Amino acid sequence: MVKKLLILCITLFLNNQIVNAQDDRFKAVFIFNFAKYLEWPTEYKTGDFVIGILGNSTVEQFLVSISASKSVGSQVVVVKKFFNVESLERCQMLYIPFNNSNMLPAVLNKIGSNSTVIITEKNGLIASGAAFNFVLENGKLGFELNTSTLNNRNLKITNELKELAVKVY
């Protein structure tokens, strides 16, 4: 009986890990594609196109894999990990994993009015300054979009991206 229970727990754990990895892969695809549906200010179209990740997340490995030898416009994509808010540097996009959601206010303070797109995955953060927020809708991964935040950061968004959003603010 104990052995069966242990096997069931291990199976459920592994199944959950596979589902989480699949979600993280989809998040990486979304993040990479968000860049293609936004129009960046001129000063953000030079040098590398930096996608930052605040802290540890398996999304990082998928982003590195997806962006290898790809570009956004004429810019080479670089995925950069930041361990804390103080180490943040200029980047076009910044992904804040769920476990670092409490850092959003400090991130917003640090980046000021820069044209950095903030991407989160915790309910309510879309109203707190995130431009994109991942959500599960009917068991499927989707995203919320805050057009006001993008406009305030001097970014233009295509209608195609608006149509893909689960909810637009």
Short description, anyone?
The protein is of the alpha/beta class and 169 residues long.
Description:
With 169 residues, this protein is α/β, with parallel strands linked by helices. The chain has one domain: Rossmann fold (3-Layer(aba) Sandwich), CATH 3.40.50.2300. Helices cover 38% and strands 24% of the residues. The strands form two sheets. An eight-stranded mixed β-sheet has the order 3-4-2-5-6-7-8-10. Strands 1-9 form a two-stranded antiparallel sheet. Strand 3 (71-72) and strand 4 form a beta hairpin.
Fold blueprint:
Layout: H1 2-36, E1 38-39, E2 49-54, H2 59-67, E3 71-72, E4 75-82, E5 93-95, H3 104-111, E6 117-120, E7 132-137, E8 140-145, H4 147-152, E9 156-157, H5 159-164, E10 167-168
Parallel strand pairs: 2-4, 2-5, 5-6, 6-7, 8-10
Antiparallel strand pairs: 1-9, 3-4, 7-8
